[in-house]
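Input record (Table S2, row 497):
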Amino acid sequence: MLEDRIRNSSLQDKVVTPAEAAAFIKDGMTIGMSGFTRAGDAKAVPVAMAAQAKDTPFKITLLTGASLGHDVDKILTEAGVLARRMPFQVDRTLRAAINRGEVMFIDQHLSETVEQLRSNQIGPVDYAVIEAIAINEDGGVIPTTSIGNSASFAILAKKVIVEINLSHSLALEGLHDVYIPTKRPSRDPIPVVSCESRIGTTYIPIPPEKIAAIVITEQSDSASLIEPADSETSAIAGHLIHFFESEVEKGRLDLSLNPLQAGIGTIANAVLTGLVDSPFHHLRMYSEVLQDSTFDLMDAGKLSFASASSITLSQACGERVFGNFDRYKDKLVLRPQEISNHPEVIRRLGIIGINTALEFDIYGNVNSTHVAGTHMMNGIGGSGDFARNAFLSVFVTKSVAKNGAISSVVPMVPHVDHTEHDVDILVTEHGLADLRGLAPRERASVIIENCAHPDYRPQLRDYFARACERGGQTPHILEEAISWYALKEKTGTMLKS
Ligand code: COA
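Output record (coenzyme A complex):
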């Protein structure tokens, strides 16, 4: 059976146990691991590393594509293995360690990590640990359900450990399109001219002698954690669909829209699912992660093609998709995240980017990462890659959090991930604010009246009116602008009594 999976006979004797592979990893090393939004992550070696750290403590810098599944970040955090972590995470235990200042977290645009590695601005990577369905005759590594940063990690690392995961079908072969941009400053254009473009190889090209060890695993990917749509996320989807319809009426879009990108999480997934019952058809996605909604749209005959860097599904949807993969395979391509999220390509294809905010302010600045301005939630992920370069940059959020104690529309966000210059459309369950062509003072009224929760509108209107008395292009009362967070700390709510 393993001949199918390790096709280069010189590599057959590289198969070792996870503990033997983990023993290569030493204190102070930089490790690049596969894994993007819980898909295609290395599963056995990191757990063996954590076990070894209990006997012989060591610390590493861990780079991945994005978030990991199977509690790997939790296990590594609890074992004290993580000194530094980049570029994204979604784990509660790691998040707490980051916010205690114990793990140094570098929150980075997902398209940038391997550019910095390639130009020796960070790194070097000592070992890449990459999950694969197989290694081909030439030593090429065929990834599983994500590519993320795996290709560049493997190409740039000193040595590579491959986890061959038998739970992934060999039918995934051919899904991937590995393209590495040429050297700067005289880089060739990246030749992606449509969602469907295939410009690279179906495997990660590395010489066989670079492979230090091979581990065999059988554990499937962690299921996604998204919640089903609720009345608020459905209302957000409804507002956005209505907006797209009016853009079609005005001749700015046609019924197939422009290629769609949707960020991680429950809200973005629900918004895409809402398109199942819309008049749009022949939709395409140029995104970074494909969630259940992608396959709901394909099954409904609405979505004709999807390009991304990973596939992250619920248990039921995973069984449906990977159990009938031939039905979907010719409508899918997975790319390295620097290509799925590349500013050049996003601008060329005219992407409609739909990402989720924690909060936004009355002028359109968006905070996606820092709770109350200080505490890391997950990270910026790819939202900035898309927002700055999109044809239409949309941010969605519920108008309140924590049962209404927090307004997601505030006078001034205490941390800015997406500036007012990168945001076109804001949507909550109460309505949509179209900020295009509006000056800050015009935006404030539209955002307060269309997006804020009715309970918070009076105090937002009051703030804005008093700020305008002080003047300015972007009026503020600086000593009061972020006082709502202190009010919440003191009284348990941002609502003024
Ligand atoms: N202040 C404090 N907490 C807030 C908040 C606010 N203004 N708004 C939401 N939250 C909390 C929610 O209460 C919830 O907390 P819980 O986990 O304790 O229940 C949590 O944030 C997640 O919110 P939810 O409403 O369930 O939305 P989500 O699952 O869609 O996630 C983000 C929202 C913003 C956290 C998530 O989309 C994200 O990390 N985005 C940044 C990265 C990104 O956009 N990537 C896109 C390309 S990968």
